[in-house]
Amino acid sequence: MTYKEPIHDVAQLAHVEMYSPDVDATVGFFRDLLGMSVSGRDGNSVHMRAYEDYYVRSLTITHRDKPGLGHIGWRSSSPQALERRAAAIEKTGLGRGWIDGDTGHGRAYQFETPDGHKNRIFWDVEYFQCPDAESSCLINRPQRRPLQGVPVRRIDHVNIMASNVTKTKTFYEEALGFRTRENILLENGAIEAGAWMSTTPQVHEIACMLDRSGAKGRFHHVAFWYGSPQHLSDIGDVFSERGIKIEAGPGKHGISQALFMYVYEPGGNRVELFGDSGYLIFDPAWKCRTWTEQNLEKGIIFYGSPVPQEFFLYGTPDVPMPAAAQAAE
Ligand code: FE
Question: What is the pTM of this model?
Answer without folding.
Answer: 0.97
